[in-house]
Amino acid sequence: MLSNYIKIALRIVRKDATFSFINVVGLASGLAVALLIIQYVRFELSYEQSNPRANQIVRLSIDYMNGGTVDAQDAETFPPIGAKAKQEMNEVVNYTRVYALQKPTTTVQISDRYYVVDKVYAVDSSFFSLFNYPLVRGSRNGLFTRPARLC
Fold it and tell me: Would you say the pTM of this structure is higher than 0.70?
């Protein structure tokens, strides 16, 4: 039975080669586009799902406008925006700012030992109330309350 279906399909492909080619290319390109869309949607839905409150966190960005079109977008905003948004908008419960230090490496001292660390970020004291990254040492109580205090 299956061999009969294959014979009929091959006859049709040979008889109408151009039409069959158009159908196969259309089917292949449609499947490729559908798979790309599915992959993109899966990536977007999986972004930042490591945080249990991911649906409550918003990242502010700036759109640089030129006339009526967007010239550029940037995830950096002006420092007072977080405090002003919390003060004036009831929906804002908390905020934090994250700033990447510009040096390629930074030396960190813990007790009498020095460590060279790549990718150091400066954050507000409310950072760990929004994100649940584990601490290597110490506790979250009193974290970032005094300058230059290491936990």
Answer: no
